[in-house]
Design a protein that fits this description.
It is a single chain. The protein contains 9 helices and 17 strands. The chain is an alpha+beta fold. The strands form 3 sheets. It has a 6-stranded antiparallel beta sheet. Strands 7-12-13-14-17 form a 5-stranded mixed barrel. A 5-stranded mixed beta sheet has the order 10-9-8-11-16, with helices on one face. Helix 3 packs parallel to helix 4. The N terminus is likely disordered.
Length: about 450
């Protein structure tokens, strides 16, 4: 892995590449231009059944650029950052632009929105680990999972991954900015068997800091525990019951919300939340806040994919939809201003109460705890929701037995309004940070 100083020098070189692209774009006749260049270096290993299954170093780089000729634009990309590679990419983008129709909404964001002064977010924490050390960690993780219970009969392996990358974006507003970040993870997946029936499950940790991943043996044991508890699964007859989505799955529910308020879905009129700005979409106790400047968080970024400054804001407050998720193009289509979300949301945090997951189970009393979702049966136009699932049947606030081969179904508009509580077991391993979510009612059916 590279040291921080050498990668900082790479950032200077990448800024020079972006400046060169913008200059050549101007010489090609473009009225405006933007470019993004990135490098990423990493190591990944997987151990299965105690042996090394994969060991991979990667060193990726790439350049993407857009040239605007008035309201016509052309895109090109390349992994060749040499002078000749840049010249070819610029020529290709210019040629494409000549054959595209004018788009009145095309163009750079307003210059005043560029990130002129952005904070240091402490995203860069290299992991000084050799391939041999990574292999040992993966083997220890898997061994802890396989030895945890006699019913663990096979393994899909344990993996250790580390990567460190720099991204630099610039445009002809005079903006060039970049930052370096790291991402490290450990994961494990094992197979259990009981009475001739098999189940698999997994667990993982992910962070900017290697020290925050925790004990690898604990990750392996958690994977084994999750696998064993699923053995002996039953089906359920059709019923309407309260449902809890475990925190790592609750993230997908909030993801459907962000997809519905994304600019592209709105201007295409392909969203079940069309024209709902300023209206109640969640219960009044719920808030969704975007926090792009959290130090060391996985979703933090000083600016978005167009160089627009990111800033904290409430997307939902008091259950009311306060704002959309827009880049500059979709904002123009909607007659609005970009929200700094080119590339998506940044640390969207869901407000939560005081109950942990066991507390939510007691609050629910009788119902279903969902721990796995299968398939993608979501209609984003109507909000209709139907997915395969597995989990646990709950009575008197306690797990009774695992369930499998079931379907959970409802409508996202009603599901969002029917949230009864959000747990304090917040999962911070992604861009959406939420605890487990208790819903008042879904239809559960055997498959």
């Amino acid at each position: 892995m590279q040291h921080k100083q050498s990668l900082a020098l790479d950032r200077n070189a990448l800024e020079a590449v972006v400046a060169r692209v913008l200059e050549q774009g101007g010489k090609a006749g473009a009225t405006a231009a933007e470019a993004v260049v990135s490098v990423d270096n990493g190591l990944g290993v997987t151990a299965r059944l105690g042996e090394v299954e994969t060991l991979e170093y990667h060193r990726d780089k790439g350049l993407g650029l857009t040239l605007y000729f008035g309201q016509r634009k052309g895109n090109a990309s390349t992994a060749d950052l040499s002078d000749s590679g840049i010249a070819e990419a610029v020529a290709a983008a210019a040629a494409i632009a000549r054959y595209t129709a004018e788009d009145p909404y095309a163009g750079l964001p307003d210059a005043a929105l560029m990130a002129s002064d952005y904070p240091e977010l402490d995203l860069d924490h290299p992991w000084d680990i050799s391939a041999e050390q990574a292999v040992e960690l993966a083997q220890r993780c898997e061994a802890a999972a396989r030895s945890h219970d006699a019913r663990i009969v096979n393994s899909e392996g344990a993996s250790v991954n580390t990567s460190r990358g720099t991204v630099v974006y610039g445009n002809t507003h005079g903006f060039i900015g970049g930052y370096t970040g790291t991402r490290h993870s450990v994961s494990c997946s094992v197979v259990g068997e009981q009475d001739g029936a098999m189940q698999r499950d997994y667990w993982y940790a992910s962070s900017r800091l290697a020290d925050a991943l925790g004990d690898v043996e604990a990750i392996g044991r958690r994977a084994a525990e999750r696998t064993v508890r699923r053995l002996g699964g039953r089906q359920l007859g059709t019923r309407d019951v309260p449902v809890i989505f475990e925190s790592d799955l609750a993230r997908s529910l909030i993801g459907h919300f962000t997809a519905a308020v994304r600019g592209a879905s709105l201007y295409r009129k392909a969203s079940f939340l069309l024209d709902r700005l300023g209206e109640q979409v969640f219960p009044d106790f719920l808030a969704l806040r975007e926090e792009p400047h959290l130090p060391r968080a996985l979703g933090s970024a000083p600016f978005d994919g167009e160089g627009v400054a990111t800033q904290a804001r409430d997307i939902v407050s008091g259950g009311v939809l306060q704002g959309y998720v827009l880049d500059s193009y979709s904002a123009r289509r909607l007659g609005m201003q970009t929200t700094g979300n080119a590339g998506g949301v940044h640390n969207l945090s869901v407000s939560h109460g005081d109950l942990d997951l066991p507390g939510l189970l007691r609050e629910m009393g009788t119902g279903l705890l969902v721990t796995e979702l299968i398939g993608h049966g979501i209609n984003m136009v109507t909000g209709d929701y139907s997915r395969g699932a597995a989990g646990f049947w709950i009575e008197n606030g306690e797990i009774q037995y695992p369930v499998e081969e079931i379907t959970v179904a409802g409508n996202l508009k009603e599901m969002f309004r029917g949230i009864l509580a959000v747990g304090n077991d917040v999962d911070t391993r992604g861009n959406i940070r939420t605890g487990s979510i208790l819903l008042d009612r879904l239809t559960v059916a055997g498959q």
